[in-house]
Design a protein that fits this description.
Rossmann fold, four-stranded parallel β-sheet, 5 helices
Length: 118
C-alpha cells in the first residue's frame, strides 16, 4: 500500500506563531489516513523570508499531493505553492474537502480563530 506524501500549504505570515497550531492540527488529522506529511510550519525560525520558498518548493517536489488550509487565498506564498504544484502536475486540494477534517471540532475551532485574525 502506497503512503502518500502530502504537503500542507497555508497562510503563515502575520499570524500568531505563524499559524502553527492549524498546521499541526491538520497534520494530525491527515496522518490518521496513513499519509506522510511535509509540514512547512516545522521549519526553524530565523531565516530571511525569501530563504524559505526554495525549501518549500523542494518539499512540494517530494510530495504526491498538496493540501491547502483555510485562508490560503490570503497568502501570496500559499498561492505560489499551489501554482507551482499545479505546474508540476501535483494534485492540489483544499483540506476542507476531507470529511474527517471538517468534522473535527478541534479543527473547526482552530480554523474559525485563524479566519477571525485575517
Amino acid at each position: 500500500m502506497k503512503h502518500h506524501a502530502v504537503y500542507i500549504a497555508g497562510k503563515m505570515t502575520g499570524l500568531p506563531d505563524k499559524g502553527r497550531g492549524l498546521f499541526t492540527k491538520a497534520e494530525e488529522v491527515m496522518s490518521a489516513f496513513g499519509w506522510r506529511i511535509l509540514n512547512p510550519a516545522m521549519l526553524p525560525d530565523g531565516l530571511a523570508a525569501e530563504k524559505y520558498m526554495p525549501i518549500c518548493m523542494a518539499m512540494i517536489d517530494a510530495c504526491d499531493v498538496l493540501m491547502l488550509l483555510p485562508g490560503w487565498t490570503n497568502s501570496p506564498g500559499a498561492k505560489l505553492e499551489a501554482q507551482y504544484a499545479t505546474y508540476q502536475g501535483i494534485p492540489v486540494h483544499e483540506v476542507e474537502s476531507l470529511v474527517p477534517f471538517r468534522a473535527s471540532p478541534m479543527i473547526r475551532r482552530s480554523t474559525e480563530a485563524e479566519t477571525e485574525d485575517e
